[in-house]
Amino acid sequence: MSRPVHGGRHELGQNFLHHTPTIDRIVRLVRETDGPVLEIGAGDGALTKHLAALGRDVLAVDLDEHRVHRLRRRLPSVAVVRADALRVPLDRPVVVGNLPFHLTTPILRRLLADGGWTDAVLLTQWEVARKRAGVGGRTMLTAQTAPWFDFTLHGRVPAAGFRPKPSVDGGLLTVSRRRFPLVDPAERAAYERFVRAVFTGRGRGIAQILPKPRHRAMRAAGIPPTALPRDLTPRQWAALWNG
């Protein structure tokens, strides 16, 4: 067999999932959604075959042309194409992916900025999943996007559940587009700049960072003066902005 034009599994950053409890949980989460499915990084099809069994329209993409050919033979009911996760159109309601760990952040940024999808079920590095869900404090990216998306952590996946075994555990994360945004979508760019200014502002607490005109909104939202930007909930961020 010839070598893939994009390199082998290590060059592609692929860690194939074989942890049965996680596969079952992902399938259950997808079953709770509606509409056609886009699977990013199908690999050897450990998830693909179960997604196909749901009876949904599934489009599976992978960058390795040999794996694409094999999946086409094994799963003729699934549309399998060779495509780059950073370029494939995000135009299906449900996105599923065991994301290449080295591409997690750019893929997430693209998902949160583009496409008409409504639900995403993603396997990422544990720290990324934990931070996006706000466990131990929210990142600036989460705060910037939370008015339009809801992040939920569904568990930790042991590194041994992947082949080859990565150096870190994985985390199962769902992202759902809010039906009713907390901030007007037309204000998104300005809101993101506001969040960045607060996260990078000087001061020991939110009261010192925020300009005084926003202190009334801070108190109304129940935000302690000593709270840090990472401590604020999505609704508190929205209250600061809308107030």
From TrEMBL:
It holds the Pfam family RrnaAD. S-adenosyl-L-methionine binds at residues 15, 17, 41, 62, 84, 98. Coiled coil: none annotated. Keywords: Methyltransferase, RNA-binding, S-adenosyl-L-methionine, Transferase. GO terms for molecular function: methyltransferase activity. Residues 22-179 form the Ribosomal RNA adenine methylase transferase N-terminal domain. It comes from the Bacteria. Transmembrane segments: none annotated. SUPFAM superfamilies: S-adenosyl-L-methionine-dependent methyltransferases. One of its GO terms (biological process) is methylation. InterPro entries: KsgA/Erm (IPR001737), rRNA_Ade_methylase_Trfase_N (IPR020598), SAM-dependent_MTases_sf (IPR029063). PROSITE patterns: SAM_RNA_A_N6_MT. Belongs to the class I-like SAM-binding methyltransferase superfamily. rRNA adenine N(6)-methyltransferase family. This is 23S ribosomal RNA methyltransferase Erm. It comes from Amycolatopsis nalaikhensis. The lineage of its organism: Bacteria, Bacillati, Actinomycetota, Actinomycetes, Pseudonocardiales.
